[in-house]
Amino acid sequence: MDKMNVSKHISGKFNDELESVRNKVLSMGGLVEKQLRDALIAIETSDQELAEHVLRSDHKINAMEVQIDEACVQIIAKRQPAASDLRLVIAILKTIADLERIGDEGERIAKVALESFNNDQQEFLVSLENLGQQVLSMLHRVLDAFARMDLDAAYEVHQQDAQADRQYEALTRQLMTYMMEDPRGIPKVMNVLWSARSLERIGDRCQNIAEYIIFFVKGKDVRHVSPESMEQTVRGRTS
Amino acid sequence: MDKMNVSKHISGKFNDELESVRNKVLSMGGLVEKQLRDALIAIETSDQELAEHVLRSDHKINAMEVQIDEACVQIIAKRQPAASDLRLVIAILKTIADLERIGDEGERIAKVALESFNNDQQEFLVSLENLGQQVLSMLHRVLDAFARMDLDAAYEVHQQDAQADRQYEALTRQLMTYMMEDPRGIPKVMNVLWSARSLERIGDRCQNIAEYIIFFVKGKDVRHVSPESMEQTVRGRTS
Any idea where the PhoU domain is (chains A, B) (predicted)? Predict the structure, then answer.
């Protein structure tokens, strides 16, 4: 039951169309993940060229979103999917909206690499990178869960966000202390703070995608429900 | 052509269902608008009780989103809408996702009213309120445009966002200067800065909703297109 066989859920003549859209989502996810990874490498290695490459590539993600969105609307109009097929199309529509915004956040993060930092400031850049790695791992795992429509993996990513939130809060405190100690550094530190916020938001969006996977597999909307109710949905038998 | 007659676009037996969902979106929009307005009043009048009321009411918005979302999926499954009917359902699905997140931002803004500020700090609270009023007007106007599926009004809101962005940038500079001058005030000022950011995001989300209206009326996805191409779509005849 753990790893749902997606093809089992796709029936009828539009199997190929649905598979093609699903593959496009995976390509889009791969690109978004690459953008975030490159943004973090650019910060770590002070690679301004790589940061600019990230900034120049966002339009590709936008174009993919529009293309997949259109394909989904076409499928609904032409194929009139029902039950789990319809849930898949809806889950895809929502997932690509989150992926597109993760791409936008990646752009904001890349901008930090365009700044230069002194030795003292390197310290909180390390904390930023740690948060970045945590969130990158969430993104990688949720895309993997999406590829296999793996309920358990999606639930694990959902749980992982609490840890990212704690890291984000610790970093925020660290940055505020730094600003109070050296007010001249504020504008530069603010950019780090915005990036940290962007990373925290990416974590939230990975959580959203995990919820769409659970919605597809279980047919139940688990947004805004209590942790207990969420666990019950995930652990319960498929209805 | 200015004010599209929505009922003209809704044909067949599921007219009532579609109208009912549209009305629910308007109720949800009304509640989201009230939350933002209350959050701003709470800041202006230092009304902590009102701020807490805003924080306690967010769950209603979440519940409405889930309910409308379900109704839309039901309509697609049962009624198999096509053409402009399908575009309406898709536009609704996307609009409620943005409305729900505007509600979340409203919560963050309300939290500022739980703080107390000294006389010096009142100054930037006024700037925050000005930005708040600007964004509240965008939200009001885009909901109004949604109610009438008014293409021109949607386009105007879309254009209005540039002004909100300028106000936001001026406020950010003001707040950073203040932090540099009085580092002890940083934690408190940071909260104002987060609220300002939330307001700026609400402006972006109003822009998104304007784009969904244009998508419904014109059948064309205008996200990520150039301003010229957007204007051409809006000014051109309905295809």
Answer: 26-112, 129-213
CA distance A98 to chain B (A): 11
CA dist A141 and B27 (Å) reads 37
Q: Is residue A1 part of a domain?
A: no
Q: How far from chain centre, in Å, is Cα B76?
A: 25
C-alpha dihedral (A24, A25, A27, A32), degrees to nearest 10: 150
Q: At B150, phi and psi to the nearest 5? A: -95, 105
Q: Tokens in use for B218? A: 């014109």
Q: What is the pLDDT of residue A1?
A: 40
Alpha-carbon torsion A43, A167, B174, A109, what sign? positive
Phi-psi label, residue A12: left if phi above 0, alpha if psi -120 to 50, beta otherwise: left
A186 close contact with B: CB closer than 8 A: yes
Q: Which domain holds residue B215?
A: 13-235
A contact residues 97-116, partner B, Cβ 8 Å cutoff: 97
With contact defined as beta carbons under 8 Å apart, do A214 and A155 qualify? Answer: yes
**Cα–Cα distance, A200 to B42 (Å, whole number):** 27
Tell me: the pLDDT tens digits for B115-141? Answer: 877 777 788 889 999 999 999 999 999
Pairwise CA distance, residues A89 & B80, whole Å: 14
For the stretch B4-47, pLDDT in tens is 455 554 455 678 899 999 999 999 999 999 999 999 999 999 99
| B72-117: pLDDT as tens digits | 999 999 888 888 899 999 999 999 999 999 999 999 999 988 887 7
What is the number of structural domains in chain A?
1
Identify from A28, A64, A66, A87 which residue to disrupt to test chain B contact, counting B C-beta atoms within 10 A and taking the largest count.
A66
- Complex ipTM value: 0.88
**Residue B124 located in a structural domain:** yes
- A178 to chain B: nearest residue by CA? B183
Residues of A within 8 A of B176 (CB-CB) are 186-187, 190
Residue B161 counted as domain residue: yes
Whether pLDDT at A68 is above 70:
yes
Whether B169 has its CB under 8 Å from any CB of chain A: the answer is: no
Using only the alpha carbons of chain A, give its radius of gyration.
19
**Which among B59, B77, B190 has the least Cβ separation from residue A82?**
B77
Beta carbons within 8 Å of B91's beta carbon, 6+ residues apart: B212, B213, B215, B216
**Residue ranges in chain B assigned as alpha helix (H):** 6-9, 15-44, 48-79, 83-112, 119-148, 151-181, 186-218, 227-235
On the 0-12 / 13-18 / 19+ scale of CB atoms within 10 A, B52 is: middle
Q: Is B3 inside a domain boundary? A: no
**Which CATH number covers residue B181?**
1.20.58.220
Q: Number of C-alpha atoms within 13 angstroms, CB side, residue A157? A: 30
